[in-house]
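# nightly structure sweep
# worker-07 picked up a monomer target from the shared queue
# config: single-sequence mode, recycle default, output format = structure tokens
# input follows
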Amino acid sequence: MIQTDWHTESEHGALYNLLSDDYTVDKGRSATVAPMQLDGVDLGIDFEIREGGPAIGFSSPSSIIYSDDSVHLAYANTDAQILTYQDTPMLSVVAPLEKNPQMIMWDPETYPDVEDLEDLRDLGVTINIFAGQTYAEIFVAQGVLSADQIDPSYDATPARFIAEQGAIAQQGFASSEPYAYKNVYEEWGKDVAITLLNDNGFPIYSQTIAIKPSMKDEMDACLTELVPIFQQSVVSYHEDPARTNAMIVDINVQYDDGWVYTAGNAEFATAAMAEYGLVGNGPDAIVGNMDTDRIQEMLDAIALAGLEHDESLTPADLVTNEYIDTSIGF
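# output follows
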């Protein structure tokens, strides 16, 4: 059983790709359950994927795995792993996404010469984001952004961005908002320009599959078998996403919880993940492994920003490539 961090969506495709066609949506538990399969082969175990976000009161997946012993795996982000290690330590064992999908977007007609966050800084453009974002504090500490241009009042709706008619920038996912603003929000109905947080000095691993470190020995044999399955599922899903995307759309219809996710959303997301390098091999020919230099870069950035954390942490406390099959990649 794995606890995710949001609604069912194509960014989670490598997980849903492992569900057989005989899946069941349990609305009461915000869970989808099915026999696990890979490339048409039944793997002989059941797999349960739980939704996050509003389904868990916007709690973190790590808080769920520590409060519910039936959860074996949970999503993790590098920055949160560092900042919450003392209370809910997590060890990432595989990274289905190579880059974090988070981005900042703006109107290219209003700001045609902007290419990155430093350009937005130089123009003093207001950036509307969720409150409490680690990246904002890090970018201010690094001088990439100015504190006075950050507006932490974003409410996940398009209303403010559209009302400002291109005057402000806003956070989002590279694999989601560009589609929605062009194709769903008719009041906007045009392209936005984006820059990935990853490309501006925030190279976290996002939505890794992680365990409680205390369970590593007990789960060792399982992880030896399971991690290569997750790796191969990343490759298989992105080579042929049609079955899984149709499943993702149907699961959202069955949940009927207000979250709308269409075939267009799913198709855009898989294409965008490839276009922006959100999924793929690392600096080598391997998918799913984690670069410890990136982890150390985040440890150093969090220290520079003066954010409270365990200063004795090393990359080995946060990630392991022990279970990675080095023969699997794109």
